[in-house]
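Quarterly update from the structural biology core.
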Amino acid sequence: MNISQKLKNFYKELDHLYQTGKTGEIEPYILTIMEENRNAPEGSQILAISCLNELGSYYRGISRYEDSIKAFEEAGRYILELMGAKSVEYATNRCNLAGAVRMIKNYGWALELFTQAAHIYNMTTGKESYYYTAVINNLSLLYLDMEEYEKAIQYLKEALNRIHRTPGQKEEEAITLVNLAAACQKLGRISQAEEYLDIAMRIYNRLEDKGVHYGGGSQYAGRRLHGEERLQGRGARISKSQGRRLPIFW
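Predicted structure, tokenized:
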């Protein structure tokens, strides 16, 4: 069986486990396939890399951040050896690793990794690519965590401008607007926050498939519309990079 078919079979079974709610079987399944391919010939090592990426995303999703970091670091070593430090795959791995590192509040390391990824994407896919925009959005979330709200707004606005130039990115636009609203709220710019949030909810209401982030945005809007603290409180920062599979994204 060639590597393409092996990858297809791996993701088909993995998707089945997620979709049927058999979460207890996910980790053993990934580990089994990974061990079978860890020391395989070069072509088959791509499957081991895919396993490590999925394992890192799975661990991050269940808050096992240290395990997530280890998986993404190991995947990075394979990618570096097989594809090189200037590959799109390596940039994506840096983003995945940064997303896990951000969760343990190691913001300096996360910033270094996101910046490295942005540089690689700039050299490969270019600044107009979805990949580069994803890094900009992730950097904005990092600055929100660091409570550097002006920088967060700067990156969110840059991401929004790039999203506007790319067809079919309405959900991404809504997510970015909700994050902008949260940043503005933190700076006390309530009317501007409400404006961004209103636009975001209008976009969501027009989407047939509202995505997994709609709930956070609608709850945020509900608190505002019902006068609960008038956009005060924790807000509704949304990160698309927290999904299971990333470009990164992520």
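Confidence is low (pLDDT under 50) at residues 212-250.
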